[in-house]
Design brief:
The structure holds 2 protein chains of 2 kinds. Chain A is an all-alpha fold. Chain A is built from 19 helices and 4 strands. Chain B is an all-alpha fold. Chain B is built from 2 helices and no strands. The longest helix of chain B is centred in the middle third of the chain and has 32 residues. Chain B is rod-shaped and about 45 Å long. The chains are: A mainly alpha, B mainly alpha.
Amino acid sequence: MVSPQVHFIAQIAVFAAIIGILTRPLGGYLARVYAGQHTFLQPAIGPVETAIYRLAGIEPDVEQSWYRYAISLLLFHALGIVCVYALLRLQSNLPLNPENQTAVAPDLAFNTAVSFVTNTSWQSYSGETTLTYASQMAGITVQSFLSAAAGMAAAVALIRGFARRHASTIGNFWVDLTRGTLYVLLPIGVAAAVFLTAAGVPQTLAPAAEATKIDGGPQMIARGPVASQEAIKLLSGDGGGFFNANSAHPYENPTALTNLAEVVLIFALGAAMTNCFGRMVGSERQGWILLCVMAILFGLGVGGIYWSEARSNPALAAVNLDQAPNPRQPGGNMEGKELRFGIAGSALFAEVSTASSDGAVNAMHDSFMPLSGGILLANMMVDEVIIGAPGSGLYGMLLFCIVTVFLAGLMIGRTPEYVGKKIGASEIKMTILALVCVPAATLGLSAVACVVAPGLAALGNAGPHGYSEILYAYTSATATNGSAFAGLNANSPFYNLTLALAMLVGRFFVIVPVLAIAGSLAAQPIVPRSAGTLPTDGALYLVFLLGVIVIVGGLTYLPALALGPLVENQQMLGGMLY
Amino acid sequence: MLDAVMLTFVIIFVVLARGYVELCDRSLTRHADKPSDVARQ
């Protein structure tokens, strides 16, 4: 029998190797796409792109100021919310409804529309019992493409801010949105959907299959156009599952191979964006530094989760329950986990899912040990800069880069610079605004939910675990992650509306300052590197950046984490479970 | 009735977001109008 630790390390090594191999070619491809250069897909997609511009009245050569870019992005998202809301409310009257689903309730439809338009994919509903195939395909899946493309567009706009000199524009939002969707997300999404279908994921418009159980009774087995939604769910950092059980469901994630493919899909574009950044600012090394920081944080997180889950639960050991690995069981804490993935596959998926902005799950996070739950929360609390979603992960990390050079500049008495741009008061103000909005919304709304009756009525557990459920929900919403701790019945008007508010703040109150920084930086000249410049492509800066991420995250959220997972862990060691 | 309430939320969001963009723009413009700390150095 291969030891569980060897199995875990092998999985991490294979996963890291695949991401490492994909990063450079994919990053180069992204840089070509967003520079408007010719790619190998041009002959097939070019005519479609031109037709879209003509139909929509877009002039691809006319660029926008940051202000117009931001307004375009906001209006596009507002229109998306209205369209998805209308689709969910009218779904019972539309075709592709073999299970005769009724209209979605107004508060749930609003929450779901906001959730998918903001790339969060928080789901207060069970997909297979709530949505029609039309809603899944035209609502959820379409928004997965568009929200990811919008996030990538915002990140590319920020990169242009660093790369340009004396420029009054940062690109054209409509062109970036179109090219990101057509040249990046669509081809990879189609290829991934074909792979998943071949691996056993259903792709059909047929109604649920009827089977006969062993006791002779009937059983309805839900299915539908799963593979096409699954592919973009992972690639986009969206994470909204076709089924309630998400990637723990055998029709979304049938084997260990699909599990590996799914975590690769979640990280691939986010990792490649760092290389795209390096190429566009003229130094790939800058991108590799960011990826190294992300990799270190990822390694610490996945190692911590595995250690926490693989060791036995002391409360269960006290009643002589066998939790040691043997040929018949993987050992450790297997509650809420799928046997086909085990602890290694579940720990890897959970870390990838919360470190990125994806939020897909292949195990129930509510059943993880308290310290693992704390790590999952911490991943989201650092603004998902550990790869993150395509685009939003990179611009989140670049915000921390700006804070780092600012703090380093204060320490050594130099004007802060980053990749040739001076970081002034306006950039720092916008950065702090973006970084403060998220914790303010997370902690403020969590505090409200902890004291009002509708907030407490939804809890599935008492004590610190119940508090963690509330904290996790709002952290997931503001970080546009969308994963749930489970245990919390969030389908109530209170949670549907407050979580929608959290998602809107988490997405747009960050994107707008990011675009403002892009506009401010683009107007500046590029400052030549001098003896007084802090090198941002070396080990010293890497350590600075790591420290800033950990300290800023720690200072902001440590008290909240202490009240939840840390207290629960201590109580578990004392024999008290929730 | 509830649909109108939800639509109102979207309109409020658009108005607030527009105001937020204006706020950021004014902040940047204010800094651009006067020499910044960086420029003085």
